[in-house]
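Kindly inspect both lines:
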Amino acid sequence: MPAQPLSVGFDLDMTLIDTVPGFGAVLEALGTELAVDFPVAEMTGRLGPPLDLLLGPHLAAEAIPPAVDRFRELYPDHAITTVPLLPGATEALGAVRRHGGRVVVVTGKYTPNARRHLDHLGLDHDVLAGEVWGVGKGDVLAREGCSIYVGDHVHDVEGALAAGATSVSVLTGGCTREQLEQAGTHVVLDSLDDFPDWLAGHLLEQRVAALEADLRERGSVMVAYSGGADSAFLLAAAVRALGADRVVAATGYSHSLPQAERDPARDFAQWLGVRVLTPETREMEREGYRANAGDRCFFCKAELLDVLMPLAAEHGLAHVATGTNADDVVAGFRPGIRAAAERGAITPLADAGLTKADVRAASRGWDLPTWDKPQAACLSSRIAYGIEVSPHRLARVERAEAGVRRVAAALGLAVRDLRVRDLGERASLELDAALLPLAPDLETSLLAEVRAAGFDEAGVDRRGFRSGSLNDRL
């Protein structure tokens, strides 16, 4: 099953904003009007409970409702502009956004005043729910699908637990670590400064666990294995979940797979103890592939899956899995994903919500040598759309890239990402942007290798390496 979208709830007072100065100013103004000497320092030291509970010890019961109304009327003039963000608040909300999540603010504060704070401070959010407290927050969090709730008070912990969400507590409010832990919080952070790193680790842990659970349920699997970071991680995860005897790595051999990728891919799979199958694929025989229109990848992936599906059945394997990750699914134009889905391939990484960054982080944690391997798309991706794909063009690109890497290494240039784009009889050389501009002599030497591979003309793309740059022409 695909991973549920991320939604994170945040309390407002003393979690995202420091309400103490504004709250104190309103209490003083209210006290002056009512001729009541409120203990402001004491009352602002335990913010969190609803206002009527805070006022209760200091006013007669019948005086509390009108005092609450008046407090709310005074609030905008005394408490909005004086209330600052707490450290890390903006970065915490930004971290949720980076992970594709929604931000839900759930607070006991009077809703109009809560909105004034959010608007004044420019806090990015999707939903605001005010005037809810304690376990009542749980209903809102559950309704909005929040899997995490961040607060500063023991009653925020109650709300999170009532919703079945992970309770994250920060020590910027009036509750101590011990009080929060006794209330049952799952995590205590000193402040929201610590939240982005915690969130990244938490999501990675959950996503990897979801991946392994999914794979265990599959029973057995053939991994469509290119040797890249994604398929290598999927292969390793499958071995962990199922055991090497119920996993097979299948690499389609054709003109579009660089020779330099083949031995390292096989070595890695064998290091995991996995059988490696290398069936030949004949995408070059598919007219749509050779024509190299925008849907070329559809025909390539269709050929691969049309070969692997019966092969998996022959070996008694229940599923064929691709290394499609969660970023790929939302990346826009990906006809290959559609071809694989139409043929019944599964996408465990994407279903678990694992992004490319997650794959690299988890691979590093597992000490996989592929954790920082540069992206290595098939050779046909180097040929501009509309130019027919042929074995000659694929071999020419492969020779050019190998020559550039060889010369760069000999001249002491550390190249990570490199593409030679076939634009017809002219080639465009893309290198890591940080290496540009090249010294004239160095550029001349590298372009000479490109021309020696069979291109009439060659130039360096001044924008540097850009994954999928030829898609810009679609």
Observations:
- Residues 382 and 421 are 5 Å apart (CA to CA).
